[in-house]
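User
Take a look at the entry that follows and flag anything odd:
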Amino acid sequence: MFRQITAAFLILAVLSASFSRLFVYAGFELNKKYIATSLCINRDKPQLQCNGKCYLTKHLHQEDEKEKKADKNVQKTAFQDVFIVEQAITLDPAVKTIGEKALPELSLNFPQRPAVIFHPPKA
C-alpha cells in the first residue's frame, strides 16, 4: 500500500513539472473574474479589454523562464558529469610495510611494442 501511494505521488510530481503551463491556464480560467477585477495591470483601462490576459501572459512568461533555468541547470550538471576525471593511481615500486609484514617490490615491465606483427594469410 505504501509503495503504491509513493509511486502515485512521484508520478504526480513528475507530471506537475511537465504540465505547469496547463496549471497556469486552469488557474486563470477558474479565477478569471477575480483576476480581471483585482490583479489585472490594465483594470483601470476598460477600453483595452484585457480582462486579465496581461496577468496570464506575465505568469506564462515566468513559467517559461523557470523551465529555461531548469534546462540550463540540467545541461550544466550533465556537462559536469561527463568531465569528471578520476584520480590517477600511481604504483610505487618501493617496498611497503604493513604492520610487521613486508610486501615484495612490484615489477611492472610491459613491452613497448609487440615482437611480431600478425599478418593474416593471403588468399
Remarks:
- Residues 21-80 form one domain.
- The chain has four helices and two strands.
- The first helix runs from residue 2 to 18.
- The longest strand covers residues 97-98.
